[in-house]
Prior knowledge:
Elements: E1 5-13, E2 17-22, E3 25-30, H1 33-36, E4 43-52, E5 57-62, H2 65-74, H3 82-91, H4 94-102, H5 107-110, H6 117-127, H7 147-161, H8 166-174, H9 181-193
Parallel strand pairs: 3-5
Antiparallel strand pairs: 1-2, 1-4, 2-3, 4-5
Amino acid sequence: MMIRSLSGTVERTALSHLVLSVGGVGYLVYMNTLRYGYEVGDTVHLHTHLAVRETALDLYGFPNLEELEYFELLLEVPKIGPKSALQILSQADLAVLSEAIRAKDASLLTKLAGIGKKTAENIVQFLHDKLDHVAPSTTTGKLAGSPTDRAQSDAIDALIALGYPAADARSAVRSQSATEATELVKLALRELSNR
Length: 195
């Protein structure tokens, strides 16, 4: 049995999963619910991966196929299971993940909480030649290149050092129009305090 997609109504949400009601059956689907802002009563369509274990069948859901593809690629890396892959995708923009793998630059991934140097190196090593069939990400993630991007990268690092989750730090910084790192940090802190 392989469940590849589900369409239904959100019945319940938690930080790491939601329950999707499909034809009177409630499916528990693991996903980053905060990123997508799903609420009870929302109608959603999810692309899914069914992880088969000895004691359980776990569903992991994504609103687009690109995220599902990267999730399944991460599962091919030794010592990365479904929960670790989901955590990586929760913290890394697909554009950053894609660029790090294509450039074989593990240092871009080590800035993410919970990804050690060895794991980052394994990801870029094992997946470098496997991205040929995956289109470069069209998401809005940026890498340190131009002075503006370097300022954003520095501001994100500063917020992470202050204890903010990497994904929150990135989204707060990238929504600002300032070009200096210190100003970006100030504006992002203001935004994060209002969330």
